[in-house]
Design a protein that fits this description.
By secondary structure, this protein is of the alpha+beta class. The chain has helices at 101-105, 111-120, 138-151, 160-193, 206-225, 232-238, 243-254, 258-276, 281-287, 293-304, 308-318, and strands spanning 24-29, 32-34, 49-56, 58-63, 66-71, 75-78, 84-88, 93-99, 125-130, 196-198, 201-203. The protein has two domains: 24-204, Sandwich (Jelly Rolls), CATH 2.60.120; 207-318, Homeodomain-like (Arc Repressor Mutant, subunit A, Orthogonal Bundle), CATH 1.10.10. Helix 6 (232-238) crosses helix 7 (243-254). The two termini are 36 Å apart. It comes from Blautia glucerasea.
Amino acid sequence: MKSYPNDLPVYSHNPNHNTSFPLLVLDVRRKVCNPRNEGFCMVHWHEELQFVYVKKGIVRFRLWEKEQELSEGCCMFINSHVLHYITEKEDCAYHSFLIPPRMLGFFDGSIMEKTVEKFSGDPLLAGRAFSSKSQEDQKVLMAVEHLDALYFAKDRPSHWEYRLSLALAKLWIETVDALETENKSAKADLSTKGTFFVNGVSRFSSIQKKDHERIRNFLDFVHGNYNQKISLEEIANAGSVSRAECLRCFKKYTGLSPYKYLQKYRLQAAAAFLETTDKSITDIAMQVQFPSSSAFISAFRKAYGMTPKKYRERKQELS
């Protein structure tokens, strides 16, 4: 059985990764992500540093096992390689800016690169919430608002990518200033408090870090083998733990049992196949390991509110 996928990545991948301007921006509204991204509505992680700017409504964030809600005008910073899940509490819209660390490091071996690595490589730092109600957070919020307006401007100014790069650097340095201000007091309490928020900063103890590595191993295995028959024991073996510990870990970090998470991932993979291939419903059902077409159609309708056929037709109408 393979350990890594050939058709779907373990990480939520950045399609711009190998381009000359690798910034990825996701526009999410009415539960639709544009452009489509496999990490949407799934527990996932990625190399990029992420800033989520809430444009409307209330957005619920889960970073590892910690949850927080942010409303319109607020922003969440999510660190590199942090397991997270973003969903809406009520009708909402938000923009996600996924920034490859190298865009903020300027060039290999630079002082700026070391600053980025200092924070992106900190296993105890998960993220930072910036609230529109906090005076201390206004510099970051002004920076992300400027970035957002520039990126989504109807009439792009000359040297648009250059201006975006400057806006990204401004947002990053304001975030670094905020993190450095709080860094010392947060680390001083880690040994006794474990997981907590200090002025919006989400941090974790070194003990919890082991749990984080374990759940990522589980998800690595599930993402890499979703199109084959896999058992709870095999998933548990991926993290070198018992089945009971596997169940506990899954529930704690994803809110789902291993089986329910696997089914959700299979349905998401099926949705991607419906959008991007001409494969029949039966072939897709078999590829994502449903026992029959009828079982697949029933599960898909329950998850997406429509049949696979209707889903494909709707996506074709929108494209």
